[in-house]
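Write out this protein's structure.
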Amino acid sequence: MFENEKVENVDVRNDDSATKSKFFNVDEYDENELAMLDKLYSSSFRNIREGEIIKGKIVGITGDNVVLDVGFKSDGSIPTSEFASTEEIKLGNEVDIVIESVEDEEGNLVLSKKRADFLKIWGKIVDAHENETVIQGKILKRIKGGMVVDLIGIEAFLPGSQIDVRPVRDFDSFVGQTMDFKIVKINVPTENVVVSHKALIEETIADQRKEILEKLEKGQVIEGTVKAITDFGVFVDLGGVDGLIHITDLSWGRITHPSEIVSLDQVIKVVVTDYDTEKKRISLSLKQLQPHPWDDIESKYKIDDKVSGRVVSLTDYGAFIEIEKGIEGLIHISEMSWTKHISHPSQFVAMGQIVEAVILSLDKEEKKISLGMKQLTPDPWEELLKKYPVSSKHNGVARNLTNFGVFVELEPGIDGLIHISDLSWTKKIRHPGEVVKKGDQIEVVVLNIDTEQRKISLGHKQIEDNPWDNFESGYAVGISTEGKVVRIIEKGLIVELPLGVDGFVPSTQLSPARIKNLSYCFPIGTQLELKVVEFDKENKKIVLSALAALKDKTDEEISDYIKNFKIERVSVQDILAADALKFDSSAFNMYEVPPVVEKPATQESTTEETIKTSEAAPVKEEVKDLKVDEVENKAEETPTPEIITTNEETPTVEENPSTTEPNLEDKDKTE
């Protein structure tokens, strides 16, 4: 009896004496006869339970129905379509049926032979599941997720993963096949059955798998069949147990997918590299059966050999080229072009591109090969001395501006550096942007070419003759002149003199008393009468004094000076008594160059020069000969504001070079 069958006992006997009297006259029989008749009458009926399999006798055939006597008070009928063959439909034959309902809407007994046949098969299936019995079935058709199997008359579901231990690639080839199955799951309420053929295969190879694992050793070479291919590797069937070849163990060279090396169902030999008997994990290798390509590298490649290969990787510092499977070389970005400034290899090569190169170095122990592409063409720097001789004049384009100079492009790929000190003979240049803008044409003179270090030193001021030879007579000590305030620095004023040269007026030469705010007393554009107190041709320095010029003036003119320039706590006598030769001109240098930030060395690259400066003079000598590619990334297009520190108590006044008037906010803060 099954859980899904609703069982209802229907007792069709009725021992009530009134009921009995309907069938015979009790007065005509004695008690013994009455008891015997009652027994005979009761035995002609049976207890009927709905859903129970019982025997029924065929007592008639009417059209498409077969009438059966099931021992009930009335006969029931079954459609002839429920009989498998006409041979079963004969009067007097007994068949198994199920009473589905004692009484339908019309009061008829409802019978089913088909249901009885199903319950008999269902009982066998339940028994096979409980006893783990193997049942044979035929695959009828393919459905989503698997197959439908005819299991001794009942349709069962065979999942796709339970057909075989190997992945199935053609499900349609199994349709129509008769196979052995093991029932793995039964759902009684829904009468669903799930079967497996894979479970039977695994049982048969369990001993074989155990034997393989027991004999497994590292380094053992065994044969297997490619079972599955994934993005990360290949699963190989070793005869009941699976092993994995990781993608990196398929070939000495780089591959993007394992299908480049093996195909499904291919029989291959592999090496056992590792295994875990508890987790049943086996690591395999295919490439170890092949000789390592670096073993005879020296016989195949030599320095200066020309090779070709495919670009397999791009990094910030270069491109890796696969010369052959398992042998790769690096082309550093510095070895890609003689002249072009390459910040990333993608500017020159692309992934998958076939390129040619020259072997520069080969290290078998470290398995490293350095390659160069620029060596395939002549070095243009070897011809530069002929094309750009020293002292020759040329026109170039300002390509990049830095704090210490201008990089000028003489021709595509050939740049030279104009140091900030070589921009002007007369002006105190704080940033190259004061003289030239990016993209401007500029005249230059070749000062020096270093082909080994690949440096070109250029000059702009050398286009004209050095005017300091003339300044020596025009600005000799004691000569009176005029100057216009063009900049205010910490220790005094920068003034422009009539011949276009800048001079320095120390704050101590403006007043015998300390001036709190120079920008307030002497704003930009102020005209001053001055006298030269120092001329230094070598350092290109002219120092002037307003006090020295005032000593030749009348008391009234000195008084006007004090009043006009708002000089406090100073009298005419103080100015006349002041020492016009007491000054500090160290704050005035014609060229001030900020230190160059050291460029960090890139990974995998050779050691490159770095530039460090701390003082103006060393900077000039060192920076003038910089390599273009060593400082290119540090180029700035806007001037850096000048910041001067001091240990004295004199307040600092900074001038913004883009303005011509003093900043009132700064004035208030300084006061």
